[in-house]
Amino acid sequence: MRGYNVLFPAGIQPSGLPTIAFSMKVKRNDPVIIEHLRSHGIPDNIIKKLEDPFFAIEFFRKKYMEMWLRMGFSIDVTREICSIDPEYQRFIEWQFHKLYKKGLLIRKPHYIPYCPVHGPVAVDPSETDIARGGNAEIIKFTIIKFNFNEYILPVATMRPETLFGVINIWINPEAEYVMLRVNDEKWIVSKEAASKVKYQKNNVELTRITFKGNELIGKFCQCPVTKRKIPILPALFVDPDVGTGIVMSVPAHDPYDYINFTKIKKEAKWRKIIGNMKPIVIIKTNKYSGIPAEEIIKEKSENIEKAKQDLYRLELTRGRMLGNCGEISGLTVVEARERIRKILIENDLGDDFLDFSEKVICRCGARVYIKRIEDQWFIRYSNNKVKEMAHKCANRMTIKPDFYAENIHDIINWYDDRACARKGKWLGTPLPFDREWIIEPISDSTIYPAMYIIAKYVNSRKIKPEQLTLELLDYVFLGIGDPKELSGKIRVNVETIINMRKEFEYWYPVDMNCGGKEHMSVHFPAYIFNHVAIFPEKYWPRGIFVNWWVIGKSGKISKSKGGAEPVPNLLDKFTADGIRLYYAHLASPHDDIVWDEEVAKTYKKKIIETYKTCETLIEIAKKNESQLRDIDKWILSRINKTISQVTQHMENYEIREASHIIFFEFQKDINWWLKRGGNNSYVAEYVLERWIKMMAPFTPHLAEEFWWRLGRKEYVSTANWPKCEEELINDKVEITEDYIIRVIEDVNNIIKAIGRKPNRIIIYTAPEWTWEVLECIIKSKGNFDRALKELSSDLEKIPRREIISVMRAILRQFQTESVIRINEEEVLYVNKGFLEKVFNCVISINSNYDPLNKRKSAIPYKPAIYIE
Predict the structure, then answer these.
(1) What global pTM score does this model have?
(2) Does residue 9 have a cis bond before it (omega within 30 degrees)?
(3) Residue 12, Cβ neighbours under 10 Å: how many?
(4) pLDDT value of residue 561
(5) What percent of the chain clears pLDDT 70, i.e. is strictly above it?
(6) Which site in 80, 82, 831, 864 is 20 to 30 Å from 678, CA atoms measured?
């Protein structure tokens, strides 16, 4: 509608685990999934077939396209793609060959999120592979080995430097612990931690030897480095699912440890074991002189968690180790942490250990662990040259919302090498030079828009998937090679090859890539990185638009929860245009929308209301009324101002603001025009034609119907966007009409306040001199003293107190930079009949009868009103 050819393709991406996990749930008769499918009208015989993931992909592929088209999306269906189709896999193989040749694919050891059933999974907010834990972070611990007879008690801590202040070990007496053989050592860990250790360490054997936590309580172990003999004490606050389920106690520097150690020391049962043990202070800051944990508890006794975090932060940023800390004495806490970690690992007294910040569950229902992979494939996003090009690309892009445009450079800097392939039961493209590995879903969806160009030729059978060779794709996307030679090699018509190249050059680069907010730190940076790494600069992407989520009342409607709110017969119930307007208008694209059926019904009603208004305009347009009155000039001015405002909002991607003006504010204007007796046929058609054009991006079905009923032959979606005809904008006519609207509003407010119907309404307009006051105030830019001085000189015959009173009233009522004088009395007389019809009573204008002296309160644009 703005004079451009627009390519709006669509595809689906079943790469990874989601479809496999879905089919497994169907096979297990998962009640949530089965009910979800039935609520969408899917018969049981089809549900049975959905146990096959490939049938599921084809079934939903068709369903999605049907729904998208019914919603009015202008999709080019000839370019449909699917990430597991053979032609798409050939395309991804080409991408990875390019990355490999540029030295951007490497192998190195890596810790990965790992499902025992499906292998590696991605853990990120998109929850593509997982059912729970998308916000989990990987926390790095240091394991410290405490000797316990023939066993090792491995403690996972984030603060290894506090080893010198350890005076006891905490164990949960109700938890179950197991013995692991790790190389030549016998480790005791919680049952929950056993699998975590197994996936991260080599030569791990789970034995059948188990312990109840209370079997270990009251015994002693030895602290490494210090050789201090310390007791094992009970603590129900120890979570067996965090770290190894064993915690070291540093009461001088941990408020929780201090509170629990002080409490347990008072119990006779433990006093003999603890003896004279006291908290050992090992870190000095400039804030606390005694025991830091004790002092901060006194300060923040109402919030111990905050006290803990504040103390940790203080000691990390401003702390220094005291002289009782061996080799790390005198070091800052930051220096000491790395130094003691190195000492522990070099002397086989410690190890590294990773854990999630929260539990992560795979789509299949299995627990996700962290596993060490020795030869993981990575894309080298850390490459400085690629980062430099990514920054250059982002600087030139249109990125919405604005704050993401500002933050994306930080994300590019932060973005590190990403594991790009996995072994396991996945859907996707095998890595071309190591086919045991399957390329993961983020990495196979970075340059996908280029595939839409050639998909049309595959879908129309002009070329076969196996003919998409590396050489052909080099020519289509990079212009490398001779099309005639290629034609002979792969036996594809040379004209087809040349046309593919021409189409790519015509459509690329991508002007706007739209995606959910979960992709801001995951997909979009990779999208930029891969484009700048593979394509010449002229094909780098130009825009990113981030949309927020449609959420259920209980949270995000995520893939792991079925992918959609189960609203049977959605379009039949609310209409496609009603749903579109709901999404466009309810909130900014950069705010979440809560799905609510009751609210959706109001948008269906708005569509019906708009439909009826369009029908009214159509009927007026069919008549032969040609008299042009002021009210017609008013609606012509309003439609052109509306075009200007909406165009500006659309250009700024302010979708909600644009839709509000089109469907709510301008609807009011049309209703007012009709109420005022608007019936000019030319004006009705003029207004409707432009209104329909503005509706088209939001409610295409409504727009196309009335475009056709106007007698237009082409689609409105291919018509030109309306232009603002500035010569038809008439500010004086608008101000005059607004004056009448405000008078009606003021009278209605008074009637509502007194609670009686009027027999007579008297309207008193402002005297002429008050207009001079208004103009002087505007001229002086609201400076009261300057305006008063000038007015006192110009209006010598008007008492100063009256001038001041009017000035104050004007300053309370108006915030404007310009004024257009109107003859209020004349306007009221012209519209006297209309006002009497509205209020069904006599209207008097500037009557001498003024029992309450209302006249003195009249100011420009706001007459005084008396009601009998």
Answers:
(1) 0.79
(2) no
(3) 17
(4) 47
(5) 98
(6) 864
Distance CA 787, CA 806 (A): 12
3-state helix, strand, coil in the chain (%, to 5): 50, 15, 35
CB 210 within 8 A of CB 176: yes
Looking at residue 792, its pLDDT comes to 82
Residue 79 burial (CB count, 10 A): 20
Neighbours of 160 (CB within 10 A): 25
The position carrying tokens 């350890």 is 166
| Diameter over CA atoms, the chain | 110
Task: Give the per-residue pLDDT at 631.
Answer: 96
Do the beta carbons of residue 221 and residue 232 sit within 8 Å? yes
DSSP at 454: H
Nearest of 618, 608, 611, 615 to residue 710 by alpha carbon = 618
- 8-state DSSP, 331: S
How far apart CA 571 and CA 171 sit, in angstroms, is: 58
151: β partners: 148
DSSP per residue, 407-457: HHHHHHHH---EE-EE-SS-BSPEETTEEEEEE-TTTTSSSTHHHHHHHHH
Reduced to 3 states (helix: H, G, I; strand: E, B; else coil), residue 543 is: strand
Strands 760-764 and 842-845, by their bridges, are parallel
CA angle centred on 57, ends 451 and 72, rounded to 5°: 70
Burial class (CB in 10 A: 0-12, 13-18, 19+), 291: middle
Helix 666-675 to helix 597-622 angle, to the nearest 10 degrees?
Answer: 40
pLDDT tens for each residue of 135-176: 899 999 999 999 999 999 999 999 999 999 999 999 999 999
Beta-bridge partners for 170: 233, 247
At 853, is the secondary structure helix, strand, or coil? coil
